[in-house]
Design brief:
The protein is of the alpha/beta class. The protein has helices spanning about 5-15, 20-30, 75-85, 100-110, 120-135, and strands spanning about 40-50, 55-60, 65-70, 95, 115. It has a five-stranded mixed beta sheet.
């Protein structure tokens, strides 16, 4: 049931606690899915387990959307532990945000993989840089006063 919808929906429908159903689902999914099969392009990101309090590192297959691994923290050691499962068949590309522990772990664990920064973070940095230039030129160009043209 969970593979066609969310764990939350099935939990409400069957009146089973979310945590219990989640544990059962992932125990069964581990046995049925071959986590070592990788398309060659993985993504590393973090998810908030409790908003603003606790994070977990998630390694996904970019092409299939399948979650390969989840780790307890978003630090260097946790990321290295997750990436060690790809030693046999390492991915050729790793997509991630600009979180330094991810970057460092990737360089050390998968030295031949190309690292790609996701486009959201690149666009965010470019916009910040443009805003800084605009603000510095604000006084020189009257049309830019309190605006962006």
């Amino acid at each position: 049931m969970c593979s066609g919808t969310t764990i939350s929906y099935v939990s409400r429908k069957l009146k089973v606690s979310y945590k219990t159903l989640e544990r059962i689902y992932y125990d069964i999914a581990k046995k049925e899915l071959n986590d070592s099969a990788c398309s060659g392009v993985i993504g590393i990101d973090e998810v908030a387990v409790r908003k603003g309090h606790r994070y977990e590192t998630v390694v996904t297959d970019i092409h299939t959307g399948m979650i390969h691994q989840m780790g307890p923290n978003r630090d260097y050691e946790a990321t290295v532990n997750l990436l060690n499962s790809f030693k046999e068949k390492p991915p050729s590309v790793v997509v991630m945000d600009m979180w330094k522990p991810f970057f460092k772990a990737c360089q050390n664990s998968l030295p031949k993989a190309s690292i790609v920064i996701d486009k959201y973070h690149v666009v965010q940095k470019v916009n910040l840089a443009l805003d800084a230039v605009r603000k510095s030129k604000n006084k020189q160009i009257e049309r830019l006063k309190k605006g962006r043209l």
